[in-house]
Amino acid sequence: MIDVCEVHAGYGRHEVLRGVTWCFAAGRVTALRGSNGSGKTTLLDVMAGIRPPARGTVSRPPGGVAYVPQRTHIDPRLPLTVRDVVTMGAWQRRGPWRRVSRDDRRAVESAMDDLGIAHLARRRLDELSGGQVQRSLVARAIVCDAPVMVLDEPMSGLDIGVRRELSDVLRRVAASGRVVVQATHDAEAAEASDQVVTLVDGRLHRHPSTVPQRCHISIPDHRSGSSVVE
Ligand SMILES: Nc1ncnc2c1ncn2[C@@H]1O[C@H](COP(=O)(O)OP(=O)(O)OP(=O)(O)O)[C@@H](O)[C@H]1O
């Protein structure tokens, strides 16, 4: 699990997160909701270790965090194919410039199959649609094989069929024992998640309640009615 405790973070004097406390459990998909500018990306950055919190702590499991950003920072002029981009996930796991093993190659092919982009494997990144780029970035994150996957609006730009397929993929990733957190404005993606949390005024609330939840207390799961530790 990934344990966020009393986290404050922002940009200069602009405090965006004001005491976020939550335990994101392994084995479930959590949808992170909130209006534009509420701090979803900021929280994902803090969880991934990209942005250090001004105060508070984040405990991550060893093995790193696979991050699917809202926009790719890969220069589209680079002559990279979809397969190259997905293979980057293996380097993230093993360290750069290590030899890619047969198992890595199998993982790359399997992730491209899962995301329905195997037929695009030899296409260059600058020849793809926005949704195809998005699916390549999710496939790269799967190949990372990290215990935590955070995704920043992975459904944006995808058609309804692909959004449903991606929800299934995320559920399978979570079912393999990983923490999966997706920031989303997509109501159907939130509905397909195991739990929904919402950022309001810099704090995290369990949906639809406005009462913030603390770590390590047992509360009922809003979908299944079962008891979970958060
Ligand atoms: N690099 C930055 N420098 C200064 N302020 C920033 C920076 N990035 C984000 N902000 C501000 O921090 C606040 C939270 O932004 P953030 O991107 O985390 O929100 P979000 O919930 O992900 O929004 P959206 O739904 O629009 O993607 C916003 O007010 C935004 O203007």
UniProtKB/TrEMBL annotation:
**Pfam families for the chain:** ABC_tran
Q: Where is the ABC transporter domain?
A: 2-226
The reply to whether Transport figures as a keyword in the UniProt entry is yes
Residues annotated as transmembrane: none
The UniProt keyword set, sorted, is: ATP-binding, Nucleotide-binding, Transport
Under the GO molecular function aspect, what terms does this record hold?
Answer: ATP binding; ATP hydrolysis activity
Q: Does the keyword 4Fe-4S apply?
A: no
For this chain, the family text in UniProt reads: Belongs to the ABC transporter superfamily.
- From the Swiss-Prot or TrEMBL record, give the protein name: ATP-binding cassette domain-containing protein
